[in-house]
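pasting for ref
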Amino acid sequence: MSFSSIATVKRELLVRHLEAWAPAALHRARRVTYAHGYADADGGAAAEAAMRVLAEQSDLVRGRELIMVATGDDPGLLAPRLTAIADGSGAGAGLAVHTISGGTDERLAVGLKAVGAQRVPVLGFLDAAGSTPPEPATVAALTAGKPAELLLVLPPGAPADPYRAGWPLFTQIELADSDEPGELLVYATTAGKSLEGFKEALWAVDEFAGVRYRDPGDPERHLIDISLTPHPGPLRRELLAHLAANGEATVTELRTFALTETVYRAADATRVLHTLIDGGTVTRRPSHGRLGGDVVISV
């Protein structure tokens, strides 16, 4: 597995998501918190990339608080670099970074409480791909945010289900470049629009050195090229399996299923449904007219 290429994909995805999240969060609230766990695990490259995005919000930060909490074994070594980026942004005291040593499991929840991250917009990024996966309680601490979002990376083969508690919307993607299990990227949120935005960013990142996605729910474990129009094969199989298990479903239900239970977007489900209907693989009720959300699809 090309760890450097996968690290690049993760970093670009983080940057793209932060670029959308930070302005929206600052418009919503006067205090916003970004939590970066395992900040020193990659030499601080992801943490620095995140801080540069936050520093770009200088015009929006005035009169507000944008706080970065960086935890890890010894992220204090990163403190001068992160502080220099913040100080050079022109945001003044509105942009602050707090580095806390002692381990992410031990310190993240404490750090969030210390900066008043309760009932304010919170985004957490925890890349534990090269470490012991975090305790579920550590991830659950982020749900104190309102709204709350999570990007969590787990080592190959690690289960994601222990981290679902407290997250009404939860999806997972495997990052791989071979038939071997890849790193598992989990995205969780308390806001539906945020999930749609994440999926758009997911398919918009550049492809690096053969890194591809795999849908954990695809029984054939098909590798999917990163593209704005991804290969529909795995989604086709999962939609048909879902219909076989449930008998029938509305277009809205199938779009929601694709968004929350697969690596795909809701719009991808609509495109696949048109193909399945045209090919006679599924039927629709009513049989004619626009493929609206209340149209019922059955095998």
